[in-house]
Amino acid sequence: MMGILSDGLDFYKHVWYNKGIYYLMKQFPGDFLMRGPGNKEKGNHIMAVDVDMKALLEAGAHFGHKSSRWHPKMAPYIHSKRQGAHIINLEKTVEALETALPKITEIAKTDKKILFVGTKKQMKEIVKAAAESVEMPYVTVRWVGGTLTNVETVNRQIRKLKDLEKRMASGELENRYSKLEVQRFQEEIDLLNERYGGIKNMSEQPAAIIVVDANEDKNAIKEANTLKIPVFALTDTNVDPTNIDYVIPCNDDAIKATQLVLDYIVAAIKEGRK
To answer: H or E stretch including 20?
Structure first.
């Protein structure tokens, strides 16, 4: 792994030097911070969120899957192959974030909802925490088919959940039913919350969805495509990026890398709400 990391560092030093950003690269990793200038122009937008390539590197965002598992359409985002695994080109990751984050900020300015999706086991808690920190809806347990495209059925289940919660909180269920029946009602509430708790206050179609594992949650992407909802997604080297509007090439198995990208997204949403 150290060989891969060393090769990656050499590459990214070269990239940043050639872009005319003068840092004390020979002293790496001692006295400099490899960070793009704050508030950079990006098209007609001002980048209010700094994207730190060094932080992405240290978080392991550059580690792709084994080359035998790659998807050919991810080739433009791959720097090289080392020890049988692909290395993601973090310059492309930075460029992708510099395109995606201003768009997320624009959406946040409209006060519309952005749906966070991350059902991979090790990512559930950080996705939920990120969404809750900006009061956005989320799905982290299982993508229920029709969550976006079968609104009538989903809303019916959410109304049922809210009604049961209200009756449980008021004591109505406890006063009318036996302890065993109340327990069963509570189990039903827990199950419904597991499936719909993160979206029970999403009263309208989201303006965008953010997916942290494009393969794991491909059905969410498919439904968003059907409704022409913009998709922002972390895409590892084994992902087909065809149906993703904003591809963010990144190691989607690394918790630190995913957390870092989510931090950028949360910052972009907060910027839009100022």
So the answer is: none
Phi–psi pair at 134, nearest 5 degrees? -120, 15
- Give, in order, the Cα–Cα distances in Å from 198 to each of 77, 127, 141, 254: 32, 11, 9, 23
Relative to beta strand 231-235, strand 208-211 is parallel
Distance CA(82)–CA(64), nearest Å, equals 10
Both tokens of residue 178?
Answer: 């036996």
CB-based burial label for 9 (10 Å; 0-12, 13-18, 19+) = middle
Nearest to 224 by CA among 243, 242, 241: 243
Indicate the burial class of 258 (C-beta count within 10 angstroms; 0-12, 13-18, 19 or more): buried
C-beta separation of 180 from 190 below 8 A: no
Amino acid found at 157: Q
Q: What is the pLDDT of residues 106-123, one digit of tens each?
A: 999 999 999 999 999 999
CATH superfamily of 37-144+205-272: Glucose-6-phosphate isomerase like protein; domain 1 (3.40.50.10490)
Q: How far apart are the first and last CA of the chain?
A: 42
Instruction: State residue 82's pLDDT score.
Output: 87
Higher pLDDT, 180 or 11: 180
Query: Rounded to two decimals, what is the model's pTM?
Result: 0.82
